[in-house]
């Protein structure tokens, strides 16, 4: 028994390290006070880096805690993305905090705790671990959404997110209870074995749909997207950057594991649900963003559309589809963090601005930022040869390979529609008369923007092989 527990701890060591480290950081912050915010952020980034190194080099694959927790190539790939996203968010915060009264040591600690939840989500092997990881991530998210206690918009964002998040948790729990009731199992592999010898029962399919609905809320998928624009706009910008990156990766990883590992025998049934949700999300994200002038709300609708594109790959239900999802989430997270670095840099002496038309003539006042944002916008639109095009290529080709060519065609059409609002930002930056320039961005913001832009083009173009190989290895975990 002791040996089995120690083996389980070895497999879950990154989560243990990060969780204990977060508690230690909290105590350090309590005793050093508010002035330690920058130092605490630095320590938190170091902690995430150490966790990533331990995950890569010192953590064995395997199943822990009687199957509740599993670490395989897919979990490892998605966890690394989560850790990178969380670390990048905290680096962005360093350059933003002092200028917007965001200088509190609690923020990096909460991000670390949320990251623990996301890592558990990706490795969840049963319905209990699924819910525990999801709620640990969500509870931290509710707090940081309302982190600006003196801001009405931030408080409203936190309240909306909490109320709708509680509703989605109830839906997910109801679905999980139905799955357990009809199979007698909570472990994903045991559920799959039970399903392989059963006919489709209506109650079990209802449970499956309810669980997918609960997870769709976290991914901002239509029709569970209603919280996204308001929460993105009202939350502090570093929080919005966080919501748009690492939690999306974790939720997509959890949905992939739940469908592929737990409901593999029912692929024809959950594929119908995912195709329906994917089409709604791609179409709504493309058309609803056209009239937006607030760049944070625009990115909210953009994220809805992009999660729909990722579902195109998952709907294929095969190794090519999972590989496409893994590649897509890596590129999407990188693009999003780069865009939010620019959003945080949109600051004049009188304060922060979020209006798209405040970017007028940026090519003349700040050519390097305008060039970087142009690359990111064109990549989000999916234009070749940028990283966003390659990401969409893999998910669309996976759908075509699975016979879902109408879904791929809809994806291409909605990508063309979305090109309108991405190109509008490019047009404003390069062809409009210049507005007043922004104050110089911090080194941290410029660094994240540079890394994101260089990854999208040209780094990914010339070094795509290792990333694709890692994604292929991740996908093989289920097949």
Describe the model.
It is found in: Cell membrane; Endomembrane system; Membrane. Pfam families: Proton_antipo_M (PF00361). It comes from Aureimonas endophytica. InterPro entries: NADH-Q_OxRdtase_suN/2, ND/Mrp_TM. This is NADH-quinone oxidoreductase subunit N. By secondary structure, this protein is mainly alpha-helical. It has 21 helices and four strands. A two-stranded antiparallel sheet has the order 1-2. Helix 4 (73-97) packs antiparallel against helix 12 (246-262), helix 9 (202-218) packs antiparallel against helix 12 and helix 10 crosses helix 14. Helix content is 76%, strand content 2%. A hairpin with a 4-residue loop joins strand 1 (62-64) and strand 2 (69-71). The longest helix is centred in the middle third of the chain and has 32 residues, at 152-183. The protein has helices spanning 2-11, 13-32, 37-57, 73-97, 106-123, 127-145, 152-183, 188-196, 202-218, 228-234, 237-243, 246-262, 267-288, 295-316, 319-345, 362-365, 367-381, 387-401, 405-431, 443-462, 464-475, and strands spanning 62-64, 69-71, 347-348, 351-352.
> What's the order of the H and E elements?
HHHEEHHHHHHHHHHHHEEHHHHHH
Care to count the β-strands?
A: 4
Q: What is the count of DSSP helices, taking H or I runs of 4+ residues?
A: 21
Based on secondary structure, the structural category is mainly alpha
Which word captures the global form? Answer: globular
**Rg calc:** 21 Å
Lateral arrangement of strands in the main beta sheet: 1-2
Q: Report the sheet with the most strands, covering strand number, pairing sense and barrel closure.
A: 2 strands, antiparallel
Instruction: State mean pLDDT (0 to 100 scale).
Output: 88
Low-pLDDT stretches are none
| Relative strand content | under 5%
Range of helix content: over 70%
Counting copies of identical and different chains, the oligomeric state is single chain
Distance between the termini: 31 Å
């Amino acid at each position: 028994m002791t040996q089995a527990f120690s083996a389980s701890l070895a497999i879950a060591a990154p989560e243990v390290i990060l969780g204990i480290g977060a508690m230690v950081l909290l105590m350090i912050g309590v005793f050093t006070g508010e002035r330690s915010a920058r130092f605490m952020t630095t320590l938190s980034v170091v902690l995430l880096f150490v966790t990533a190194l331990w995950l890569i080099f010192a953590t064995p694959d395997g199943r822990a805690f009687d199957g509740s927790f599993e670490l395989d190539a897919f979990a490892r790939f998605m966890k690394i993305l989560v850790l990178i996203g969380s670390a990048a968010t905290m680096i962005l915060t360093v350059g933003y905090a002092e200028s917007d009264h965001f200088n509190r040591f609690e923020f990096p600690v909460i991000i670390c705790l949320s990251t623990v939840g996301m890592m558990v989500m990706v490795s969840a092997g049963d319905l209990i671990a699924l819910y525990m990881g999801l709620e640990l991530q969500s509870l931290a998210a509710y707090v940081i959404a309302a982190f600006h206690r003196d801001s009405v918009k931030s408080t409203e964002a936190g309240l909306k997110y909490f109320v709708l998040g509680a509703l989605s948790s109830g839906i997910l729990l109801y679905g999980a209870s139905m799955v357990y009731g009809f199979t007698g199992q909570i472990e994903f592999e045991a559920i799959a074995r039970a399903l392989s010898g059963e006919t489709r029962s209506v109650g079990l399919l209802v449970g499956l749909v309810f669980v997918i609905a609960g997870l769709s809320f976290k991914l901002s998928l239509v029709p569970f997207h209603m919280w996204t624009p308001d929460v993105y706009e009202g939350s502090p910008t570093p929080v919005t950057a966080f919501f748009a990156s690492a939690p999306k990766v974790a939720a997509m990883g959890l949905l992939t594991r739940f469908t592929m590992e737990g409901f593999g025998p029912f692929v024809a049934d959950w594929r119908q649900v995912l195709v329906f949700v994917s089409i709604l999300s791609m179409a709504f994200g493309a058309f609803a963003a056209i009239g937006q002038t607030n760049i944070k709300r625009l990115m909210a609708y953009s994220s809805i559309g992009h999660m729909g594109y990722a579902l195109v790959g998952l709907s294929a239900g095969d190794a090519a589809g999972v590989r496409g999802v893994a590649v897509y989430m890596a590129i999407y997270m990188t693009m999003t963090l780069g865009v939010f670095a620019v959003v945080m840099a949109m600051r004049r002496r009188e304060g922060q601005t979020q209006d798209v038309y405040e970017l007028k003539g940026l090519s003349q006042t700040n050519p390097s930022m305008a060039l970087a944002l142009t690359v990111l916008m064109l990549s989000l639109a999916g234009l070749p040869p940028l990283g966003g095009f390659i990401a969409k290529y893999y998910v669309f080709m996976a759908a075509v390979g699975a016979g879902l060519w109408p879904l791929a065609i809809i994806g291409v059409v909605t990508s063309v529609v979305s090109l309108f609002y991405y190109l509008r930002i490019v047009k404003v930056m390069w062809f409009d008369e210049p507005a007043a320039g922004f104050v110089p961005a911090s080194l941290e913001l410029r660094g994240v923007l540079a890394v994101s832009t260089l990854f999208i083009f040209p780094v990914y173009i010339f070094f795509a092989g290792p990333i694709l190989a890692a994604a292929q290895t991740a996908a093989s975990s289920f097949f």
